[in-house]
Amino acid sequence: MGDLFKSTKVTDAKRIVIKIGSALLVDEKHGTVHRKWLETLAKDIATAKARGQEVVIVTSGAIAVGRRHLDLPKGSLRLDEKQAAAACGNIRLAHAYQEVLGHHQMSVAQILVTLEDSENRRRYINARNTIETLLKVGAVPLINENDSIATDEIRFGDNDRLAARVAAMISADTLVLFSDIDGLYTADPSKDKNAEFIDVVEAFISPSIEAMAGGSASDFGSGGMMTKIAAAKIALNAGCRMVITKGNPLHPLKALEDGAKCTWFLPDATPKKARKQWISGSLKPMGEVIVDAGAITALKTEKSSLLPIGVKEVIGDFMRGEAVIVKGPEGEEIGRGLIAYGSEDARKIVGLKSSEIKEKLGYMGRDEMIHRDHLVVEL
Questions:
Q1: Confidence of residue 132 (pLDDT cuts 50, 70, 90)
Q2: Considering the domain boundaries, does residue 226 fall inside one?
Q3: pTM to 2 decimals?
């Protein structure tokens, strides 16, 4: 397969986030779901899952669906009307997804998030753990912005960036943005006949690429190419490939697999490597964990997780999910990681076997103090 993050084949993906825009999903005039289109997407997702790929859906359309059923006026809606429409529409959207995916024996689990949920550390961890667990048991997470409670200051405002944040949160390797345009051009092709198509953007988003996107959210369709470029920045920083392609055809994921016109944005690192770089260099450590010689050997030679039995002391006050420095008995830095327990509980389980954690804390916590996926060890 080679380096996945340099591949332009969606079939190479291991974990895919698919973003579906409102215009693709909902008949704006009647406020109904494009059922036939959604059924073909469901079949594509079933095919992807059958070959071992994990799929997460980020969907728009709740307001468009809900406003018709609440008989709200045409034109712009007030914030409270949008929130009411979203509350109504989310139920109908989730039901539609459950029906079409359920036909292929797939379960759907809805998660509604706000911008705050991706920026608040504890909420971020809870959301990540929930999605990870759903994927582990074979469900398809269905994610949308929580428009019913989100005010302007805690909103993403568009699902392109929401999808990119979700992809980064769960270390997805591929983000698919189904759009009403087939990719990135040097200018708006509807206005400039000399606009050239860009099939691949590598490593980072340059000022010239941003200039191609234009400066208005109305450019290149309802989502706006600017929001897609902003999503690409988030995805690439997380080591996630992103692709923009037309979502209008039936079986849109299969069309992409079969070579549909698209623009790929390729990172210069894998999601795992990007996450490790973020842990080791971007996060401020909030405490320290002192480990014994046996733990050092396990971490360095066996690339194991850090278990409580190998911990001698916990220093500092921190919350679950925050960054800590792992040190050896002589005070030497061994690595850095995201700890699975707050400092108070971490101190209680120092030196314990994983099987003893529940009895000590009164609840079933994680076996690891720091899981190897969240740990960067100095070799």
A1: very high
A2: yes
A3: 0.81
